Please model this.
Amino acid sequence: MQTESKTFEIKFYPRGPKNTEWKIWPTGGGVAAATGVAGSFTLAERDAKKALERLTGKGA
Model:
């Protein structure tokens, strides 16, 4: 069985005056692997990094 090593990139999108949406995209293209919305950029960045760790199996 061959496993594919995927790399991802996080992109941030402003949503209204206070919210920030984040999406984690495979670098090879395709649909977003994870998404979320947070009340500030700092919280969005934190949440996106946690989700990326879960996707890649790193951390914890």
Strands lie at 8-15, 19-26, 34-38. Residues 8-55 form one domain. The mean pLDDT is 89.
